[in-house]
Amino acid sequence: MSEPTNRPRRERLAERSVDRAAGRDDRLDQPLAQARSWRWRPQMDPEQFGAFAEGFARFMGTARFLAYMTIFVTVWLVWNVLAPDNLRFDPYAFIFLTLMLSLQASYAAPLILLAQNRQADRDKVMIEQDRTRDERNLADTEFLTREVAALRIALRDTATRDFVRSELRNLLEELDERQRRFDPDDGEDATEDARD
C-alpha cells in the first residue's frame, strides 16, 4: 500500500487502524512476500567462486606475483618519469598508480579472507575426522588391553612348559628317592662300584 506523503499523518494512521481492524496489516512476525525484481542479479556457484578465490590467494602468495607486481610498478614509474611529457599519463604524485594498487588491494583482501574461511572450514572437518579416528583408536586400544589382560589371567591357570618341566623333575627326584628307599642294596653297590 503506497501512501502519498502529502496527506496528513493523522489520516494515514487512521487508515492503518482501519486496515488492522480488517486484518490487512503488515505483520512484523511474518516475512513479506517476495516481490519479483526486474533487476538482473548474477548467479554464482559458491564452490566455483571459492575455488577461484583460493587460486587467487594462492597466486598472490607466490614469488611470481611479487615479481610481476614489481615489474608492473617499475615500468609504470619509469614510464611516467622518463617518457616525454605528452606520453606521461600519471605525473609525479602517481595518483593513478595509487588508485590502481588500492583497487587491487580492495579486491584481494576479501578474496583472501574467503580463501582463509574455506581453509578454516576444511580444517574444522579434518579436526573432527581426526577426533573421531582418535576416539575409535582409543576404544580399540582399550578393547585390546582388556583382551590381553583376560589372556594373562587365563594363562595363569594353564601349565607352561617350564612349569611342566619342573614338575617332571620333581616327580623323577621323588621316584629316585623311593627307589633308593626300597632298594638300599643297589644304592650301596652303586656307591662301592663308584669307589673301585
UniProtKB/TrEMBL annotation:
Keyword Ribonucleoprotein: no
Keywords noted in UniProt: Membrane, Transmembrane, Transmembrane helix
Positions of transmembrane segments: 65-82, 94-114
Keyword Transmembrane helix: yes
Region Disordered, residue ranges: 1-27
InterPro entries assigned: DUF1003 (IPR010406)
Identification of the protein by name: Putative membrane protein
